[in-house]
Design a protein that fits this description.
By secondary structure, this protein is mostly helical. It has a domain at 3-58 and 87-137. 49% of the residues lie in helices and 0% in strands. The protein is built from 7 helices and no strands. The protein is elongated, with a radius of gyration of 31 Å.
Length: 192
């Protein structure tokens, strides 16, 4: 087996071992970290399969995207309820100990190697596996699998509030300018 996939699987296996060791010491986020442990195992198996198929030249062709198409003729059922899984940047590194951060650093260096970039450029579907892993570990997504930034919707400019005449209270500013202590200012003829 080539060095890249061997190192990748070793890093992911060690990462799972670090998560398991952390679970043995601290059960604060047990359900969440157990789900992350299982998900990383599935990611490792999927990446091994993709790499071996890529090496053998037997990758199936990509199907055209059906994003945005309506589903007709099929009854839409709700997917089974899944446990909450965070999507924030570096959430796994913040919930586990420093060993996880060390494995994240090793993964970042491995993904920066030229053989990794060649694999990721040739097999873009590996991005669907590695992008969530990079996000949960807090490492930069490699350029071959990085998605383009989403276009931002223009925000409507807020309308300025209509100007209201200033409220001065009982006396106008002109009257207050001529105020002297002990003397009550005269009211203007138009005010009530």
């Amino acid at each position: 087996m080539p060095i890249f996939i061997t190192l990748l699987c070793a890093i992911l296996t060690d990462l799972r071992a670090a998560i398991g060791a952390h679970l043995g010491r601290d059960r604060t986020h047990q359900a969440l970290l157990t789900e992350a442990w299982a998900r990383i195992g599935r990611m490792s198996r999927r990446l091994q399969t993709l790499y071996s198929r890529w090496q053998a030249g037997t990758l199936p062709r990509l199907r055209p995207s059906r994003a945005g198409q309506s589903v007709t003729g099929q009854s839409r059922t709700d997917p089974p309820a899944r446990a909450y899984f965070p999507r924030g940047h570096a959430w796994l590194a913040s919930h586990a100990d420093h060993h996880v951060r060390g494995h994240a650093s090793q993964l970042a260096h491995l993904l920066a190697r030229p053989d990794a970039e060649a694999f990721l450029a040739a097999v873009p579907r590996a991005g669907r596996i590695l992008r969530p892993l990079c996000r949960m570990l807090g490492i930069a997504v490699p350029a071959p699998i990085a998605l383009p930034p989403r276009p931002r919707k223009p925000r409507p400019r807020p309308r300025p509030a209509p100007r209201q005449p200033p409220r001065h209270g009982k006396y106008t500013p002109a009257q207050l300018r001529h105020y002297r202590p002990g003397r009550i200012p005269r009211r203007s003829p138009g005010s009530a």
